[in-house]
Amino acid sequence: MSVHLKNTIKKLIKENNGPLSLDEIIILLKNMPEYQRTKIESLKPTIKKFLQETKKEKEKLKEKQSEKDLISETSQSFLNKKRNPPKNNSISSLFPSQNTFNPEKFIYKPTIKLSSLGGMTEIIKRIKELIRNPLDYYEAYKELNTLPIKGILLCGPPGCGKTTLAYAIGGEFGIPFYKITGPDIISSLSGESEQSIRNLFDTVTKSAPSILFIDEIETIIGRREAANKEMERRIVAQIMTCIDDMNDKQFEKNEINENQDVKKAPVFIIGATSKPEFIDSSMRRSGRFDVEIHIGFPSLEMREEMLKSITKKNKISPKINFGEIAKKTPGYLAADLQALCRAAGHNAINRYIKNEKDINKEENNVKEEINQEYIEEEENIININNNSIKNIQNQTQEESLKNLYIEQEDFTLALSQIQPTSKREGFSTIPNVSWENVGGLKELREELYYDIVLPIINPQKLKLVGLSKAAGVLLYGPPGCGKTLLAKAVANEAKANFISIKGPELLNKYVGESERAIRSLFIRAKNSSPCIIFFDELDALVPKRSSENNNSSERVVNQLLTEMDGLEDRKQIFIIAATNRPDIIDPAMLRPGRLDKLLYVPLPDYEDRCSILETITKNLALSTDVDFKKINDDKRMEGFSGADIAALVRESQLHALKRLNKKEKENEGDKEEIKEFKINMSDFEYSLNNILPSVSLNDKKKYENLKKKLQESRSHLI
């Protein structure tokens, strides 16, 4: 359709003041002189399509106009409200409130008490002193105008029992207990979060004596300098203001009940966090959170008490030895022990179900035999037999339920099913390596016993001679001599928590992250003391500082030096480091007070090589012709390290495996001979020809000279 024809149709519609039908438009076009020679009938489909499009455009225009009218009405209403604001002059009144905060709904009634907790004797004693005295003797505080402790911050790794301890505090003293988390008071509207905080503190103060418990408190009072939004800073400032205002209201009369005794009006704030370093520093000062209680990893005795407390309501066999279970659960937190007891209960149920299925199978077999014998007898006799079988089944089930207990074997199986939280987070617990797995090195054992093991097992003996500071030990020597193995065996003997750090894993390319990782490491060790930190390949972490080094590596060295011997005492945190290159370690690290003892781990001598061979091969099937003395007398064994001897034994095992495969192909039918197959002397001869010492004679001399220089003085390393 031409543009001229479209304009003509639009003109006709406009002149007639309204829409026209298709037939009317065709009649009008025929009467026009310019279209008399045109076949108008042929243009019918085109004109019809044009009319439909015109109609759709008009409908769209109407919709847009209605939207504009609605927007203009809303804008006018908003402007009217703005020109004539409400009396309270609050911007939030212009919008409907999305979060109606009701503090009363956060009242929680704990059902547990402090007496039901196990393994927290010292912490419970401290809590009672901080809360019981202000509740019972508040008149004395009022008389002296001395404010009681207001805030208690519970710190510790996730799963150590912070929330449970807070609930037990509320249940013990029987006063109103309010529990909130960060998201409960956060609102999307500006100013409403602060109003919720003020309402909450007003309610808690009016219902004094009371306890306000804030779980995961770091989510709402994080460091203001690291906050991304202005609202987060305002929330921290509002909470600080509310806590400070409580000081003025401590000795006021209760507003809810004027006749209530004034002496019982303290308000306690308990916060729980697993990341205290993320809390704003101004919140951790005196007057706000006065006391910080760190809940670390439980010791052996604490774990035993926790296990007894957790299983108090369970049906436990009297033969269970909780002391043995506690010895096998180093690094377990309270939540891990609870999961262990739950898994043991599941194992007992699975054992019961398995026994029931076995009994049912036997009863079904007996029933089939009875039915076969009496299949030709009358029905009533068969019914009697069926009823008697059912009665027997019910009696058997009741007896088996009465005899169902959680046994020691259920806990043993649960130990292999539960992974403690510390291992999930990348921190290792007490290693499985004992002195039985270490051959030789008797002199080093004694040194490590007095430096590391004895201060952990019996610290009272060290106090008798005035030793209180934890020691640091550097193990250095040729590679493959068992430095890492020694550290693991020491941690196992001491039954202390063990954190293994490979040198480079603390380094980070971002500025400040490496130093933060070191601080977090020592905080974690402090919370889980007594603890042994093992630095493998220390030379990669603390190289010598010089003008050529970059600033990032020097900051890491400085941070580690400060943590090891800074302003704060390193109590019950023992350092063991291992390196092959003590000559490139920063000399400040090797001074007394940080790494007190430098222990040289030499290549094994004749007796040590024999001991290592016996230790490695004690669980192997060896032939009677294997002679360790003959192997050690061989000149090819000189200069072998512990790792070389382990490689020698492994090569012998592989050679024996090749012989076994060859024998299976030749004698397929002789299975008894294959079962009795053992490693013989020829396998060791083969491995001696293929395995060479990893430490050369020149390297051995260098390490011996380095040992002499270290014994004379440490100043040569500068």
Can you describe this structure?
The chain has 718 residues and is of the alpha/beta class. It is built from 25 helices and ten strands. Helix content is 51%, strand content 8%. Strands 2-3-4-1-5 form a five-stranded parallel β-sheet, covered by helices on one side. Helix 7 (192-206) links the parallel strand 2 (177-181) and strand 3 (210-215).
Give the helices and strands, then pairings.
Blueprint: H1 3-15, H2 22-31, H3 44-83, H4 121-136, H5 138-144, E1 151-155, H6 162-173, E2 177-181, H7 192-206, E3 210-215, H8 230-249, E4 267-273, E5 291-294, H9 300-310, H10 322-327, H11 334-373, H12 379-402, H13 408-417, H14 421-424, H15 442-457, H16 459-464, E6 472-476, H17 483-494, E7 497-502, H18 513-527, E8 531-536, H19 551-564, E9 573-579, E10 597-600, H20 606-616, H21 628-633, H22 642-666, H23 671-675, H24 681-690, H25 697-712
Parallel strand pairs: 1-4, 1-5, 2-3, 3-4, 6-9, 6-10, 7-8, 8-9
Terminal CA distance reads 97 Å
Q: What gyration radius follows from the Cα positions, in whole Å?
A: 41 Å
How many strands, what sense, and barrel or not for the largest sheet? 5 strands, parallel
Poorly predicted runs of 5 or more residues: 88-99, 253-264
Relative helix content: 40-55%
**Number of distinct beta strands:** 10
Number of distinct helices: 25
Question: Looking at the structure, what is the overall shape?
Answer: extended
In terms of DSSP E residues, the strand content is 5-15%
Report the structural category: alpha/beta
Main-sheet strand order equals 2-3-4-1-5
